[in-house]
Amino acid sequence: MSAATILGGVGAVIGLVxxxxxxxxxxxxxxxxxxxxxxxxxxxxxxxxxxxxxxxxDQLPVAxxxxxxGLVFALVTLFALRFGRxxxxxxxxxxxxxxxxxxxxxxxxxxxxxxLPVSVLVANLxxxxxxxxxxDLRGLSPLTWALSAADGMTxxxxxxxxxxxxxxxxxxxxxxxxxxxxxxxxxxxx
Length: 190
Description:
Order of helices and strands: HHHHHHH
Structural class: mainly alpha
Strand content: under 5%
Largest sheet: none
Number of helices: 7
Number of domains: 1
Distance between the termini: 43 Å
Helix content: over 70%
C-alpha cells in the first residue's frame, strides 16, 4: 500500500468525522454560542467544492472525505440557525458558493485547484473572528477544530507525497487557521 493511499485513507476518516463533534455538541447542548454560522455554511460549500475537485482529478479519498464533511457542515449550519445564530451572519457563504460554482463550470478542476485552497481562509476566518470577539464560547467544539488541524496536517503530507500543490496550500492554511481557534477555545475554558 502506498503512502498516498494510507494518507488519503487517514484524511478521509478525519474528513468524515471532523465536523461531527460540533454537530453533537449543538444537538446535546442546544447552544450555539461561539459557533460561526458563516464558517459552517462556507465550510459546507467548500467541502462540496473539494468533493467535485476530487472527482474531477480521480482522487476518490478527497471526494469521499470532503463530500461527507460537507453534509455534516450543512447540518451544523441548520442547527446553529435553529439554536440562535442569526441569519444575518451569512456573509461569505452565499458569495463563495457562487464563486465555486462559477469557477467549477467555467474552469473545471484547474480553476477549482486554484480557488479551493484559498477557500479555507474564507471558511475559517469568520470562526477565528468569532472565537476572539465573543466572550461565551461554550457552544464551540474544540475537538472539531483539533480535528481540523489534524486534517490540515494529513492532507498537507498527502500533498507532499502526491505533488498536488492545491491540496498542500489547503493543508497549510487549514492548520494555520485551526490551531488558533483550538488555543482560544481551550484558554476560554480555563
